[in-house]
Structures are given as C-alpha cells and as structure tokens.
Amino acid sequence: MQSVTLSLYRFGSAPARAWALFQMGPARFALRAIPKIGTVKLCGSGVGEGFTPVPDTSVYAILATWPDHDTARRAMFGTRIFRRYAEMSDERMTVFLTPTSARGRWDGAEPFTPQEVEPGGPVAALTRATVKLRSAGRFWRQEPEISRAIGRDPNVIFKIGIGELPMVRQATFSIWPDTRTMATFARADGPHAQAIREVREGKLFREDLYARFRVDAIEGTWAGQTPDLTRGPQDMTDQMKVAAE
Questions:
Q1: Contacts of the segment 196-201: beta carbons below 8 A, 24+ positions apart
Q2: 3-class DSSP state for residue 150?
Q3: Longest Cα–Cα distance in the chain
Q4: pLDDT value of position 235
Q5: Counting beta carbons within 10 angstroms of the beta carbon of residue 25, is it exposed (0 to 12), middle (13 to 18) or buried (19 or more)?
C-alpha cells in the first residue's frame, strides 16, 4: 500500500537557513538515491495561507512516496540526508498519508496511487499547480481570496503552502476532520469557489493536480504542537459566527 509522507522543517538561525536554501540543489540527488523511494519533491514554503508568492525562508518541505509507512520511517531514521535535515532544523513534523484519490499530473507524471481504504477519520487535500507565466498576474489577483477562505474556515486542522518555484509552481496542503467538512468547504458558494471557477475557466494553469489522502499519523510538532487529529468538526453556530466576522 503506497505511503506518502510530507516532512516539514523549520530553520531558525541564519546559518541554518542558508544551509537549507543551499540544499535545494544537492539534496535532491541525495533524496532520489534513497533505496525504495518513489517520487520525491523538495519544496520551499510561503508566508500566509495556501498559495502565496512570498517565500518563507525558514520553512522547507520534503514530499515523498514509499512502498509503505515502515519503509518511510526506516529511511527517515537511517539515511544521512534525513538525519541532517533533522539535526539542522529547530522544529520538524512528518505527516504519514495513504492516497485515496488523485486527478492530474505533477511534472508530467501521476505520483500517487489511490488505495481502497476504509473511509472515516481525518483527511488531507493537496492542490498543486504550475501557473502559466503569461497568466501569473491574473492568477495572483484571484489567489488571496482562496487563501483567506482557507484561513477563516473553523474546521481546518492544519494548512501550509509549499512550492518548488515562487509565483509559478505552488501547492497547498490541508488537513480536515473528515471528508464532509472538506467537501463543504470546497463546494461552498463563496469567495473561494468563485475564485476557483475563475482560475479554471480562465485556463491559468499549465498543469495541475488534486489529491486526497487518509491521514494515518503525525510525528513531531509544528508551531510548538502536534495537530489534533481527534478534533471533530465545528458546529454550524461556530461556522456562522466565523463567517459573519
């Protein structure tokens, strides 16, 4: 059963940040050389919610696929490149995922193999796109509404924007209590849905991918805590209150 991991690292000092930035080149080769690793993407991050054109030089991410979670854990504890990222960072967290659906491509390939797993429990969504250069300005005029909508939703457990190249190669990762709350947010007829429609109708992407996952485990902390996978969705009163604000 395919395992997908998203490992996040926060670097505090200037030397550590410089090291992480430099690793965007050589670390790719070291990661791809790990036995049994499949797709691997080394990404930077952005400030704010979701897609963002402003990079956060303190945060980096490694997205990878594996034959199973045990293989992933052995690589993270047993390979020099993962150990080095852990040693250099001030904070780290890895989310272990099982893909349940995927549509689209990433660099011309389909990296995720959906599995037949039992529904229920926390789920994650990954939205990734390569923005057409000639459409970048138009896209970034729409994007703030999407990001603000994600940040305002009371049900989202965790969210972060990552990317391989500022402005044009971006991804948003978010965790939700269940498929219902995630679907409600995606389909709600508000600024988020309107912005998504305009992006799609305008054909602003050269390539895009949307995938869903079952969240199996989270190890480590982010912003001083581990996202609470036992948290249930907020009731409608809370949602209406947040929306009104």
A1: 196/146, 198/142, 199/139, 199/142
A2: helix
A3: 51
A4: 44
A5: exposed
CA dihedral 245, 190, 212, 129 (to 10 degrees): -110
* Residues sharing a CB contact under 8 Å with residue 26, sequence separation 6 or more, in sequence order: none
- The reported pTM is 0.84
159 within 8 A of 172, measured Cβ to Cβ: yes
Amino acid making up residue 107 = D
d(CA 119, CA 1): 16
Q: What are the structural domains, with CATH classification, of the chain?
A: 3-244 (3.30.70.100)
* Distance of alpha carbon 5 from alpha carbon 43, whole angstroms: 13
88-111, pLDDT tens digit by residue?
999 999 999 999 999 999 989 999
Neighbours of 99 (CB within 10 A): 22
